[in-house]
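User: Can you predict the 3D structure for this chain?
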Amino acid sequence: MQKAKKYDWKDSNMALFGSDTDKKVKKTSAESEPAWQGAGQEVGTKVWRIVKFQVTEWPEDQIGEFYSGDSYIVLKTYKEEESDELKYDVHFWIGKYSTQDEYGTAAYKTVELDTFLDDKPIQHREVQGHESALFKSYFETMKLLKGGADTGFNRVLPEAYTPRMMHVKKLSARTISCTEVGMKKGNLKSGDVFIIDNGTKIYQWNGSSCTHDEKFKAATEITKMKESRKATVSTIEEDACSPRHPAIMLLKDGESKEKVDVEGERKMFEISEEDGDMSMEEIASDDDLSKDKLQSGNVYIINTGSHVFCWVGGEASIDERKNGLPYACNYINKTETPWLPITVVAEGKENQKFKDSF
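Assistant: Here is the predicted structure, written as structure tokens:
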């Protein structure tokens, strides 16, 4: 089996958490963050990007776009049927090449936003390329771009463009991804659509078994590209495409780097400060994972192999509650599956995905 890829950000020790500064964070501190003003007051999706330790609002017309060199915070505000109560899910998203400072700040500020909203949100951690189904469901199109967001703000003349290729793939009935990939012939897949962008010339390459939705989404993205420059567009059908076609000649030889999904370890850990010091102890593994081991006075980290949950007991101390997420991050970052999604769930408010894990 191929060894799982390790990410640069996983070595972060989340030093901001558990420090004296963290323990002193109160709602008054959260309320002093300008970015949170008005957050969570109405149904919808809000996104912020971390810029030099600061939380900056992401433009509404770019919601769903993420750059691999950045970290983001996403707040989903919603109401359940037959209820006027606002509910929340807050995620911090880590780009593949996001710095430790950005990652740590995004995580820290996620907890602060949770405090601002009176601890009502369910907290999640997402890693680029391994996002949870819940996170992806927020966006009609999820666009993953190389570089940092500042790169996208610099307008470049079409003739000076560096060629790039976008992979358009239907993920679910409601979500289509548009991901920047390497300019390699091996990256072309018959089941999907690709946009080969050469600045003044844009090609839409339709795989022989792609869907109508993927074709339509690619055409929509190309229309957006043309709004900022003069470019001509050609549509190519795989079955009628010559190896000498100008679009194909832009691509290098080489095979696709297939992502290998590795199943995580199934383990359960108990976080407790009963002895005066915060400790994390493994209490179960594999088939021994059981909800019966959860006690209201503590916090638990449960790795199901595909998702990590931080279960917070109703009688857990403040320090135990506040340190649950960083403990989960530090733990999973040292495993062979550092990309697994993390979700914090409170006792009595467990979601169905958590319940189905046992």
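The mean pLDDT is 86. The first helix runs from residue 20 to 23.
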